[in-house]
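Subject: design request, 202 residues
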């Protein structure tokens, strides 16, 4: 698997998301649209538009550009009404681990707060985020110091559907460095495989 930074990016639309498209004073082209398996939505007038992989703002800009061929100065807003890929997976030393319902705007601290917070033996400075980056299953990992987010004002981390969050235990962190460098990637890889299998079945 790959490693790399996970930026505080805006929510990106996924397959099966339900989008609310509102065009000012144009009810015939406004409404709810589900992102199809090819990543597109189908709207009146302009037909197929690529939605998956874009932010709602980017999609709104594309729709505005396309609709100018048919409407005078269209004003378009796009919001995600329901996320189709609806789970993130929380593992390790937390109050209530397991699959959690994803909603747009969800952050790491929100997820932890809704799941009973850290366990007694949690290593807050060593939280791991595993994120699938494409349809081929490639992933990136990031080590997050949640203690700094809580107490030093570091930026919170926005989550995406399908993310896996792993909170290690103090006992695991106390292993010698050589053993840890072997076990940690294995544990993360197992977590990703388990997460993908769990979320795929849903």
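Subject: RE: design request

Done. Sequence follows.
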């Amino acid at each position: 698997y790959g490693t790399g930074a996970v930026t505080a990016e805006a929510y990106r639309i996924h397959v099966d998301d339900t989008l609310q498209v509102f065009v000012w004073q144009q009810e015939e082209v406004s409404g709810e649209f589900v992102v199809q398996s090819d990543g597109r939505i189908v709207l009146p007038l302009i037909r197929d538009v690529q939605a998956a992989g874009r932010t709602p703002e980017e999609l709104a800009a594309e729709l505005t550009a396309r609709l100018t061929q048919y409407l005078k100065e269209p004003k378009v807003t796009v919001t995600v009404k329901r996320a189709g890929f609806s789970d993130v997976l929380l593992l390790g030393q937390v109050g209530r681990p397991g699959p959690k319902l994803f909603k747009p705007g969800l952050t790491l601290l929100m997820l932890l707060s809704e799941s009973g917070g850290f366990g007694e033996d949690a290593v807050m400075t060593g939280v791991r985020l595993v994120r699938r980056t494409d349809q081929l299953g490639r992933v990136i990992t990031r080590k997050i110091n949640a203690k700094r987010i809580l107490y030093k004002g570091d930026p919170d981390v926005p989550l995406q559907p399908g993310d896996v969050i792993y909170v290690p235990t103090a006992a695991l962190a106390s292993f010698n460095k050589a053993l840890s460098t072997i076990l940690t990637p294995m544990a993360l890889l197992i977590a990703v495989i388990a997460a993908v299998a769990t979320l795929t079945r849903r």
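DSSP finds five helices and ten strands in the chain.
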